[in-house]
Amino acid sequence: DLNRYEALWTLDQLLRIVEGNAYELTLEPLDDDESRGVEFEIKVADGTVEYWSVKRQTTEAAGWTIPILCANDECGRAILRDLLGHVEGDQAHRAVFASTMSASEFEELRQYSSSKESLEARLGHSAKLDGRFRNYILPLCGDNWEKAREFLQRTRTHAADERQLRERVNLGIRKLFYAVDSLPLDVVAVRGVLHELLLDSIHRKIDRKLVLDTLAEHSVRLRDWRSEE
Q1: Burial class (CB in 10 A: 0-12, 13-18, 19+), 126
Q2: Torsion of CA 177, 183, 184, 188, to 10 degrees
Q3: Rounded to two decimals, what is the model's pTM?
């Protein structure tokens, strides 16, 4: 079962499919390799496949530091190790980590990963970041600098609390859909329909047609902004 926070991120990505920026989402893929450490995968319009790891929060006040992201859980699994496994499987794969709390250390390393020179220059100005990279990211990648830099480049992080995320999803629903009976659109009801679609489609691919057909059964249709201009 999806918790509310995971569900909101998944709904946010369903709206991305409706907008045409992605075309297929699978919640909890059946294949063990595909599902390891992630809540869902989404195929993006540019041909890449994103693997999303969604964690509500960490108990540490400092947020998602690199040591926490690399720490083994009770099953011997680590967030970044699982994401690396998805990224290194194919050049078209990308990893995404989303939480209520930021992963600022990882994100800062990522922002300087466009070239080896840029990354080395940033590490040279921060002993803490240099230690995080050399003691955690580099060993994770077999002490291969280029592999570590590529992992940073192909991984994204997002931070949003439940309220912010709910407002974002609600806004997306209002922008994309209307009620055919001319009554005000019930955003909470639309969220509920989409949530049921997710639960009914666990392990199966969800595409734009399935989303729109499901909403049409509940008298909700896609807006045509051209006709409203």
Answers
A1: middle
A2: -70
A3: 0.93
